[in-house]
Amino acid sequence: MPYSTSSGASSPGRFSSGSESGDIDTPFTERSILFDDHDIDVAVQQSVNDQHILVVGGCGFIGSHTVWELAKAGYNVVIIDNLSNAFSSVFDRLETMVTHHYETVKPGCRQPSLKLYEADFRDTETLTKILESYETPLGFRQHPNDEQRSTISGVIHFAAYKAVGESIKQPLKYYANNVGGLIDFCDLLSDFGIRNFVFSSSATVYGTVADIGVPLREEYCSQETTVFIDEDDQKKVVQAGCSGLTNPYGRTKWMCEAILNDLAHADPSWTITALRYFNPIGCDESGLLGEDPRTAATNLMPVVLRVLTGEAPALNIYGDDYDTPDGTAVRDYIHVTDLARGHLAALKSRADKGFRVYNLGSGRGHSVLDLVAAMEQVSQRKIPTQLVGRREGDVGMCVAKAGRAQEELGWRTEKTLETCCRDVWRFLEHVVAEDSRAKI
Ligand code: UD1
């Protein structure tokens, strides 16, 4: 039964805001003489329906889309973000979108709470205070074990550095944040009895295995020796390890998977899901959320958008001599909304414990020229291009074998490359309109 919740958390981080509303009805309207009003408020607050999902890095591109999907699905969301590569205005927009959604699309439904703490997930002292504020009071735990110790029932961890070039120049920064940060964070979560964890991994872990030219199965990059029957009906044995990782960023993702696998082995009370993202593009269909980092991304779609807005004169095409239909490199582009929903599927559908990896990709490949053509079609504008040499560390083809996520999580992509382009174009028009309004 829905009733209103109040996250009631203190604000150890610098910035904190909340939005919550909804109807208050039974069972707590019938007040018990055994408890005073405060106890009852706490009981309401800490009831089963007051579970939260903690999203670390929830103001970034994928994080914000995931928060939006979580909120639409009714989850209370707590965001921790140091805003190093995102803006707090994203959170304001999310609040507005969620309120509007519950007023217009779901009137009468309980609006979940959203909360942002501006904090670094490596700041253990601040994190401890935040996690303490989500603890279930002792008297309200049904079991003496610590499974119900926290009202945070799941964590999605996005807060990692991801620029390949920067990782080559500043490897220690990447190992400290992505790997060291993860270790301390998991340690802290465990102290609070929070052991349901979704990790942002990447197709980059396949390294040069991607170049075999067939869709990539999760088994091709394994954290332990894996035996399976491949597409050609042959029994294959893959030893634990990775092959041909070309940069520190990629190595951090692989190391994190290995660490999480070891953790789940050592402590079977953990449920850890590593999601290997292929190439996320697109944005929410409203055009209100998009990719808006502080540091300009060098991935294909952001560069295409900079060319469309005149910020860059032309798109450099990195190589046309790959073994692909048109010679340009092929990737599995996945709409960020589909990707975000993959996280919800991971939270909802993992009934088992332990460590498990899933590809989040469509299983379809598109070349650089396909993406340019689709974007030209949608925008009705010419995108100037110039052919340059291959980019160091690039593979010719990287496409997911997508079956495992469908079979085990009930998730698959729904949106096409054209939809990605249409939604991104809408976002661009929205941003341009906002910019010109701001200048008036
Ligand atoms: C890149 C990262 C990868 C990371 C992923 C998600 C590299 C080598 N790899 O993947 O580790 O997990 O982003 O952030 O950076 N392209 C152009 N011109 C451009 C930009 C890209 O032709 O200006 C081409 C690339 O050569 C590639 C394709 O477009 O073939 C996609 O590139 P990109 O969006 O950077 O993604 P990945 O290289 O697949």
A few lines on this structure:
One of its GO terms (cellular component) is cytosol. The chain has helices at 37-46, 61-72, 88-104, 124-132, 164-169, 171-191, 248-266, 300-308, 336-349, 368-379, 403-409, 417-439; strands at residues 18-21, 52-56, 76-81, 111-118, 152-157, 196-202, 226-229, 235-238, 271-277, 279-281, 315-318, 330-331, 333-335, 354-360, 366-367, 385-388, 397-398.
What's the structural blueprint in terms of helices and strands?
Layout: E1 18-21, H1 37-46, E2 52-56, H2 61-72, E3 76-81, H3 88-104, E4 111-118, H4 124-132, E5 152-157, H5 164-169, H6 171-191, E6 196-202, E7 226-229, E8 235-238, H7 248-266, E9 271-277, E10 279-281, H8 300-308, E11 315-318, E12 330-331, E13 333-335, H9 336-349, E14 354-360, E15 366-367, H10 368-379, E16 385-388, E17 397-398, H11 403-409, H12 417-439
Helix pairs in contact: 2-3, 2-9, 4-6, 6-7, 10-12
This protein binds uridine-diphosphate-N-acetylglucosamine.
Uridine-diphosphate-N-acetylglucosamine binds at residues 162, 164, 202, 204, 249-250, 279, 299-300, 303, 315-318, 329, 331, 368, 391, 393-394, 398.
What does this structure look like?
The chain is built from 12 helices and 17 strands. With 440 residues, it is an alpha/beta fold. The strands form 5 sheets. It has an 8-stranded mixed β-sheet, sandwiched between helices. The protein is globular. It starts with 17 loop residues before the first strand and ends with a helix. The protein binds uridine-diphosphate-N-acetylglucosamine. The site of uridine-diphosphate-N-acetylglucosamine (UD1) has 21 residues, from helix 7, helix 8 and strand 11. Uridine-diphosphate-N-acetylglucosamine binds next to helix 7, helix 8 and strand 11.
